[in-house]
Design a protein that fits this description.
single chain
Length: about 100
Amino acid sequence: MVNLAYPTNEDIKEDIEIENFIREIVDEGFRYRGFADSAGFPRSISNKETLIEYLTAIIFNISVFRAAVNFDTFTYYSYTPNAPSCLKLPLPNKTRLSLWTGS
């Protein structure tokens, strides 16, 4: 999508909305959270590779990472019957269990 929206690196440099977005993340996001500097986030983005890298990190953090942190996924999936990692046969049912004689 970045390559479609920005054919060249110059297009990224000229996009005022990207610059405003980056400035807001650094000045309002990180400073609001108590970081003295930008916490490693760039003050400007001038090429497609960097834009893709940071957009990917942002999308991951607001979707997958946030879901894993906010929802109790480890507790749910660590209980094997909830999510068996290797299920080769159908789950036992009452009929199959009643056929077992114990010998």
